[in-house]
Every structure is written in C-alpha cells, then in structure tokens.
Amino acid sequence: MLVPKRVKHRREFRGQMNGEAKGGKNVDFGSYGLRAVESKWITNRQIEAARIAMTRYMKRGGKVWIKIFPHKSYTSKPIGVRMGSGKGAPEGWVAPVKRGKIMFEIDGVPEEVAREAFRLASHKLPVKTKFVKREEYGGESNAN
User: What CA–CA distances, in Å, run from 118 to 1, 47, 100, 111?
Assistant: First the structure.
C-alpha cells in the first residue's frame, strides 16, 4: 500500500477541496486515462483496490501508472471519547483529488480493454470518473 516514507508533521489541516486541479490534467504517460469528475479524498486502500482490479482484468498485460499519492494523513479519536483534549491520532493516509485530475493511466492494451479496466477500477473509488484518451484531452506524445 502507498504511504509516505516520512513526514514533517504527523497531523495536517483538512485543506480546501473547491475548484479544479491545478496540474495533472493531461494524459502524459499512457494512451488512456481515468479522470476525476468531482473532488474527494481517496484513501491508500482505495487506490490499491483500483490498481488490483485493473491489473487483474488486463491479465498483467499493458502498463498502469498511478498519478496520485496519499501524502495527507487524517486523524480520528477513539469511539466513546468526549470532545476536546486535543486532535486525534493519525488514522490513515489520503490523496486529495480535485475535479479534472487524471488519477490512472494505461498503455499497451486495446481501447475496449482499457475502458473495461477503468470501469472496474471506478467501482472501487469514491469519485465519479470519466474515461479519456490522450488525443482528445490535450496530452503530448512522449517520443523524445
């Protein structure tokens, strides 16, 4: 599972989730991408479940790029604890994904296989998604 090797601060602010993604809106590495249509936090377990669903369907063929990383910690207090007395302990890791961000990319498989792999992966994710191709979404070729 994806977790940071080390962090400067164990507890972070929640942050803002409004607006579109600033970067990562193009299909850069593969031929097809899975774009987020809404903004949400995606946990490291959800990312891993989506990756497994895609690779299993593609029968280990092709290549998958994960373009999001869970670098933000979220906290929670134990059940039955009263309010106050500080922030809770770090519970897990999330990747804040804004609208328009390309989360996964695939190359080396036909379009129908990529579509179905992304459809299976999208069921594991808490965001609405859209299938995009490199040509139609403004990505550039990596032929250098």
Answer: 19, 12, 16, 10
